[in-house]
Write a structure and sequence with these properties.
The protein has a 7-stranded mixed sheet with strand order 5-4-3-6-7-9-8, sandwiched between helices. It is built from 10 helices and 9 strands. Helices cover 37% and strands 19% of the residues. α1 crosses α2, α2 runs antiparallel to α4 and α6 runs parallel beside α7. The protein is α/β, with parallel strands linked by helices and 273 residues long. The N and C termini lie far apart (66 Å). The chain folds into 2 domains: 63 residues, Ubiquitin-associated (UBA) domain (Helicase, Ruva Protein, domain 3); 197 residues, Rossmann fold (3-Layer(aba) Sandwich), CATH 3.40.50. Bound molecules: glutamine. Glutamine (GLN) binds next to loops.
Length: 273
C-alpha cells in the first residue's frame, strides 16, 4: 500500500479522534522513522508488509482511545523529549506557563532552591534545570513509578543535577526559594474525566476531592513553613479556580493570576509574607 492510502484508511478508522490525520501521520512517522514532511514528499511510496503490520498494531491502540503519548512512550515539553507512561500525566503545553513564570523570577546564574511538587514525568523540574543550570532543583512525587520515569528522563537529557525525593507534597522536604506545582485539580465528578486522553491518565494525578481543590489546599497550608522569606509558590489550577486559589493564598503577598495561551486563568502565584 502507498503512504497516502495507508493514511487515508487509518483516518477512516479514527473517527472518534479530534485529530485523525495528525494521529495517523504521527504513528506512521514513528514506524518509518521519518518526519511528517517525508510523508507528503513521498506519498506514493509503498511501505513494506512489516512496516504496515507495525503501523496497524499502533493504530489499534489509538482506535481504542489510548493517547498518542502513551502509545509512543514520549511527549515533548519545553523542547525536551520526555518519556511518559500510564504512571505519569501527559505534560500539557499550558504547563509551560508555570515554567516561564518560575524562570522570570530567577536570574540566569541563580543558585536558588526550587521544589517541583508532584513532578510526574519530571517536566517542570527538568525544564527549569535546563534553563537555570546553577539552581538546586528538587523534584518530588509520592508515586515511586512516576519518580523512576522522571529520573530516567533526567538521565536521558543529561540533567542529572536534579534531585528526586519521594514525598507526599511537602511532608519530607526542607526549605526552598520557589515551590512550583501542577497538582491534581479536577473534581471527582467532573465528566471530562471520562473523555478523551484523560481517561487513560492516572486518576491520582488528576483528581483532588469534590471541588478539585483538596491538594491545592494541602500545598498552600504546608508551603509557608517550607519557603524562605520572600520565597514564592506557583500553582497551576483549573480555568475556574483562580478566585478560590487566591482566597486560599490570603496569607501570601503579591498574589496574582496568569492566563495560559488560550486565555484561561491557569496559574496563581503568591509570595511568602
Ligand atoms: N490540565 C489537566 C486537564 O484538564 C489537568 C491536570 C491536572 O489536574 N493537574 O486535563
Amino acid at each position: 500500500m502507498r503512504l497516502n492510502q495507508v493514511i487515508s484508511t487509518a483516518i477512516n478508522k479514527l473517527s472518534h479522534s479530534d485529530t485523525p490525520r495528525l494521529d495517523a501521520e504521527v504513528l506512521l512517522c514513528n514506524v518509518l522513522d521519518v518526519t511528517r514532511s517525508y510523508l507528503y514528499a513521498w506519498s506514493d511510496k509503498v511501505i513494506t508488509a512489516n512496516q504496515y503490520n507495525q503501523f496497524q498494531e499502533l493504530l489499534e491502540h489509538r482506535i481504542k482511545g489510548v493517547p498518542i503519548a502513551y502509545i509512543l512512550g514520549n511527549k515533548e515539553f519545553w523542547s525536551l523529549d520526555l518519556q511518559v507512561s500510564e504512571n505519569t500525566l501527559i505534560p500539557r503545553p499550558e504547563t509551560e506557563l508555570l515554567v516561564e513564570l518560575v524562570l522570570a523570577r530567577l536570574d540566569s546564574d541563580s543558585q536558588a532552591t526550587i521544589i517541583d511538587l508532584g513532578t510526574g514525568s519530571g517536566a517542570i523540574a527538568l525544564a527549569i534545570a535546563k534553563e537555570r543550570v546553577n539552581c538546586n532543583v528538587i523534584a518530588t512525587d509520592k508515586s515511586t513509578t512516576a519518580l523512576a520515569i522522571a529520573k530516567q528522563n533526567a538521565k536521558n537529557l543529561g540533567l542529572e543535577t536534579v534531585k528526586f525525593i519521594e514525598s507526599d507534597w511537602l511532608s519530607n522536604l526542607g526549605l526552598a526559594d520557589v515551590i512550583v506545582s501542577n497538582p491534581p485539580y479536577i473534581a471527582t465528578a467532573d465528566p471530562h474525566l471520562n473523555q478523551g486522553d484523560v481517561q487513560y491518565e492516572p486518576r491520582s494525578a488528576l483528581v483532588a476531592g469534590n471541588d478539585g481543590l483538596a491538594d491545592i489546599r494541602t500545598i498552600i497550608a504546608q508551603a509557608p513553613k517550607h519557603l524562605t522569606d520572600g520565597g514564592c509558590l506557583l500553582l497551576e489550577h483549573g480555568y475556574d479556580q483562580a478566585a478560590a486559589v487566591r482566597d486560599l493564598l490570603k496569607q501570601f503577598q503579591s498574589v496574582e493570576t496568569y492566563q495560559d495561551l488560550a486565555g484561561w486563568d491557569r496559574v496563581t502565584v503568591g509570595v511568602k509574607n
